[in-house]
Amino acid sequence: MSHESYTDDECTMSHESYTDDECTMNDESYTDDECTRSDESNTDDACTISNYGNTTLHIAARRGNLLIFEMQLALYNRAHRDPDKKNTNGDTILQSAIMGKNPEIVKCILDSTSVQPSVKNMNGDTALHSAARRGNLETLKLLLERSDVDLTEKNQLGNTPYDLVETYWVDSEEKQYAKEVLQ
């Protein structure tokens, strides 16, 4: 669909609507049997619904509705689809949830999928870099509970998660705490 638009702050998609009660987009329903739009065949890209390679899981993770995300994840599991698929920016569903500032979905992803926080996107950012850039302390804490995150990992610009906290966070107690736990 070429008429979709996304913004960092809103993550909106023009001409498409989502409701909590039904998992539909413009009268195209998702079935329990095959995570696919009713007008598409069951291909590897059937769950990709944007020009940016975002799957229904990417969009649900970013929008922040836990119920919709869990429903989409169940559809993926039933259809034996891989939730680890990256979008064209190299973002996983974990990074989409982080960019949407949705710690409850981040926790769900960490607890119930094989998505690894150490996976890098096109900018060399891991999930920890993304959380540091977005300024969400709760998400940082969730990621730091894991043993598979590297505090010293640098992205393509040579920044560690600590550097991103220093750059993007407003001076506050949260910033001080984040810097302390990232050292």
TrEMBL record:
It comes from the Eukaryota. Residues 22-33 have a biased composition (Acidic residues). Keywords: ANK repeat, Repeat. ANK repeats lie at residues 123-147. Residues 22-44 are annotated as: Disordered. InterPro entries: Ankyrin_rpt, Ankyrin_rpt-contain_sf. PROSITE patterns: ANK_REP_REGION (PS50297), ANK_REPEAT (PS50088). This is Uncharacterized protein. It comes from Mytilus galloprovincialis (Mediterranean mussel).
